[in-house]
Specification:
Blueprint (H helix, E strand, L loop, with lengths): L2 E7 L8 H9 L8 E6 L3 E7 L12 E2 L5 E9 L2 H10 L12 H9 L9 E9 L4 E6 L8 E5 L2 E5 L2 H4 L1
Antiparallel strand pairs: 1-3, 1-9, 2-3, 4-5, 5-6, 6-7, 8-9
């Protein structure tokens, strides 16, 4: 179990602050006591709390595609990541980790939102595409892994638990 959280400013008037994301992540520390990861840009930011299971040394998140225009955080596990990773490597993608969920940024880059149909696992994730300024949230087909979201004060907020949003 890990924890994810994030904010996107919908108005263009507010800067996302690392302190706010850090506070959101702190409420999720029980979901991921092993590490924390953050990515903050002017209008959006992601937070991640890690429970280290796979790729113990380099598997912290967020994950990025090769030119860092796509960023993801994920809570869960992609069971068929090995076959997906092999296919992506054959198409020229380079991986930075052996973490199962790094396939998400590369699959999104290849196939857009349609890649969701390829995934086998239990997961909730957020992907931010800087080029298209698109936030894509999804969870597994059965809904095993939680993902909560709301819009408040001109911002879109999401997290693995409601208390991170509050």
């Amino acid at each position: 179990m890990c924890g994810i959280a994030g904010i996107v400013d919908l108005t263009g008037e507010h800067r996302v602050e690392l302190q706010v994301l850090a506070a959101m992540a702190e409420t999720l520390v029980h979901r991921g006591p092993d590490d924390a990861g953050f990515h903050v840009e002017e209008r959006w930011g992601f937070a991640f709390r890690r429970l280290a299971i796979l790729d113990l040394t380099t598997g912290n998140q967020p994950h990025y595609n090769e030119d860092r225009t796509i960023c993801s955080v994920c809570n869960g596990e992609i069971y068929n990541y090995r076959e997906l990773k092999e296919m992506l490597i054959a198409r020229g993608h380079r991986f930075q980790t052996t973490c199962d969920v790094e396939v998400l940024v590369h699959l999104y880059e290849e196939e857009g939102r349609e890649f969701l149909n390829r995934l086998n696992g239990q997961f909730s994730f957020a992907i931010y595409d800087k080029r298209g300024q698109v936030l894509f949230l999804a969870r597994d087909h059965v809904g095993i892994t939680p993902l909560f979201f709301t819009e408040a004060g001109g911002s879109f907020l999401f997290a693995s638990e409601v208390k991170a949003i509050l």
